[in-house]
Write a structure and sequence with these properties.
By secondary structure, the chain is mainly beta. It is built from 1 helix and 8 strands. The strands form 2 sheets. Strands 1-2-4-6-8 form a 5-stranded mixed β-sheet, with no helix packed on it. The protein has a 3-stranded parallel β-sheet with strand order 3-5-7, with no helix packed on it. Pfam families: LRR_1.
C-alpha cells in the first residue's frame, strides 16, 4: 500500500509492500520519496546490497522494516545518521 500525505499531492507518506513476492535489487528512485516516514518491504525476495546513500534519500523515516529478505553485504553505516528512525527491523 502507498499512503500519501494529502490526496491532492504526490508526496508519499509511507510505503508498505510486504508479502508481495517482490524480488531483485533494492528499489531505486527513493529520492522521489524524500518526505516518506515509513517503509515496509518485509517478507519479499529482495537481494543484493542496500544502497549506500539510503539515509540521504529518505532522511525522515521513522520506521524501516527490511526483515525476511536476502540482502547481502553489511548495513550501510550512514543508517545511524537517520535521526528520526525509531523502529528498525532487519530480522532474518
Amino acid at each position: 500500500a502507498v499512503e500519501c500525505w494529502f490526496a491532492d499531492e504526490n508526496m508519499v507518506l509511507s510505503l508498505h509492500l510486504g508479502n508481495l513476492g517482490l524480488q531483485g535489487a533494492f528499489p531505486q528512485g527513493l529520492q522521489d520519496c524524500a518526505s516518506m516516514t515509513g517503509m515496509g518491504l518485509s517478507n519479499n525476495s529482495f537481494s543484493g546490497p542496500n544502497p549506500p546513500d539510503f539515509s540521504r534519500q529518505v532522511p525522515y523515516l521513522t520506521s524501516l522494516d527490511l526483515s525476511y529478505n536476502s540482502f547481502s553485504r553489511s548495513i550501510p553505516q550512514n543508517i545511524s545518521n537517520m535521526t528520526y528512525l525509531n523502529l528498525l527491523n532487519l530480522q532474518h
